[in-house]
Amino acid sequence: MSRSDAPIGVFDSGVGGLSVLGEIRSLLPNESLLYVADCGHIPYGEKTPEYIRQRCAVIAEFFHQQGAKALVLACNTATVAAVADLRERYPDWPIVGMEPAVKPAAAATRSGRVGVLATTGTLQSAKFAALLDRFAVDVQVVTQPCPGLVELIETGDLTSPAIRHLLRGYVEPLLAAGCDTIILGCTHYPFLKPLLHDMVPDSISLIDTGGAVARQLQRLLAQCDLLGGGPALDTRFWTSGDVEIFRNILPLLWQKSDSVRFFAL
């Protein structure tokens, strides 16, 4: 296998990164993909930065041993905690992280008020504060931590009264504050777009960064002459949680796959 035909490693604390994986598959259909869902250690958003860095280091080294030609941190919280360390450790490896879409949201808002749905860890990070300082000087940003959402999405619950009630409680303060643009600041949250469209007026813009991550990955691969020529191999999955639960959720969020193994590291 040539290096350009090597797979791309993508990981998240759970199933949320599948939203990013879908964007990568759509933009780069010739690329083979590997995915680790670190479900046994979810939620990252409530863990310490050091704990998250340790998990990211383990997963990154696993992908490196698998021969991955690039790494995608499909998790805002993991990016905040670990992307700088990983880039230092693997200076010759294209590494793409996530960040809340503050810049496009600030450009899109008409009311001058932007809402952010995210995990506690993302909202409390220095990286998020720096994004606000850089791109949101002229807009009001209303932040809303969303404890419990990730855990429900991890069960495959995208429509129940329980998640509808929880989500409404997080969205209503943003609407009351006059936000006309809402950032989905966790990779799990794009799976809730159908629910959100039921809760907010059509005039409200919902912004996530999965597409931007896929485009950045494409740019880096092109710069390094690593774009794959295809055909792509079947995507391989690992989870540090319950394999059967993850296998049952995949058809809801991605597609059916029998290639799910236990990630024991």
Number of helices: 11
CATH class of the largest domain: Alpha Beta
Q: Report Rg.
A: 18 Å
Number of domains: 2
Oligomer: single chain
What share of residues are in beta strands?
15-25%
CATH T-level topology of the largest domain: Rossmann fold
What is the strand arrangement across the widest sheet? 4-3-1-2-9-10
End-to-end CA span: 26 Å
Per the principal axes of the C-alpha atoms, what is the gross shape?
globular
The CATH architecture name of the largest domain reads 3-Layer(aba) Sandwich
N-to-C SSE series?
Answer: EHEHEHEHEHHEHHEHEHEHE
Percent of residues in helical segments?
Answer: 40-55%
Mean pLDDT: 92
Biggest sheet descriptor:
6 strands, parallel
Low-confidence parts, pLDDT < 50 over ≥5 residues? Answer: none
Structural class, by secondary structure, is alpha/beta
The count of β-strands is: 10
